[in-house]
Design goal:
With 121 residues, the chain is mainly β. Helices cover 0% and strands 44% of the residues. The chain has strands spanning 19-20, 30-31, 37-42, 45-54, 61-63, 74-80, 85-91, 97-100, 107-118.
């Protein structure tokens, strides 16, 4: 798979790299840090790592058009720092990432999750 995404530097050079996908954040969402919104393809699996802030978010759609996506829509739990509760996050087969159950925004605080899902070929 040829990707045009920047790899995140890591201390283990033999490990599969995570790729920075901050450029796909949408609707006022921002990354909580330089290496906190990334994906890693691993055979038939896709790892997603996110820690994003919604302080200026205008929509529950966190990202659009992520080029590495799951084989089908995947719903998983994340953590919302503002309330300390779990939230549902969905990633579609076309790379759209949406948080549900929080209203229309803004979303002060951070939403975080790490998830492994089947990858689209």
């Amino acid at each position: 798979m040829s990707l045009d995404l920047p790899a995140i530097s890591q201390p283990f050079p033999d490990a599969l790299p995570f790729f920075d996908i901050r450029q796909f954040l949408a609707n006022g969402w921002t990354s909580a840090g330089a290496y906190t919104f990334a994906v890693r393809p691993d055979g038939n699996a896709l790892d997603l790592m996110l820690r994003v802030r919604g302080d200026n978010a205008t929509s529950s759609a966190i990202a659009e058009g992520i080029p590495i996506s799951p084989a089908y829509a995947v719903r998983f739990q994340g953590h919302y720092s503002e309330t300390g509760e779990s939230v549902w996050i969905s990633m579609s087969g076309v790379g759209r990432l949406v948080v549900s159950g929080l209203g229309g925004g803004p979303f002060p605080g951070e939403i975080s999750a790490i998830v492994r899902m089947p990858m689209k070929k």
